[in-house]
Amino acid sequence: MAKKEPFMEETYEDRKLREELGRQTNAGFARLENMEMEAGAIDLPTDETALEPLSEEEIKRRVGSGNFEAAKDDKQTGSINS
Question: Where is this region: Disordered (predicted)?
Fold first, then answer.
């Protein structure tokens, strides 16, 4: 008897089936996504205002001044994909 691979990835040749499975997966994630927001949190803009650069003060407000200062003084080089 052939031993079944425990982590064998399933593949689907039919495009419509792949798209349907993708829609079902996305719908499942949307149902389970935590939609609660902390008090004082703001929605991230998705319109053209999202393209405007943020000031240092706005970044500090969003990430916290400690995180901002730690990232600013970090000696690591950025990721090539950043």
Answer: 62-82
CA 3 from centroid of its chain's CA atoms: 37
DSSP for 1-55? -PPPPTTPPP----HHHHHHHHHHHHHHHHHHS-----TT--PPP-SGGGGSPPP
Determine the Cα–Cα distance for residues 71 and 67; give it in Å rounded to an integer.
Answer: 6
Specify the higher pLDDT residue, 72 or 60: 60
In angstroms, the first-to-last Cα distance of the chain is 48
- The amino acid that residue 82 corresponds to is S
Query: In angstroms, what is the C-alpha Rg of the chain?
Result: 21
DSSP 8-state assignment for residue 58: H
Per-residue pLDDT tens over the stretch 15-60:
888 889 889 998 888 877 766 777 877 777 677 767 778 888 888 8
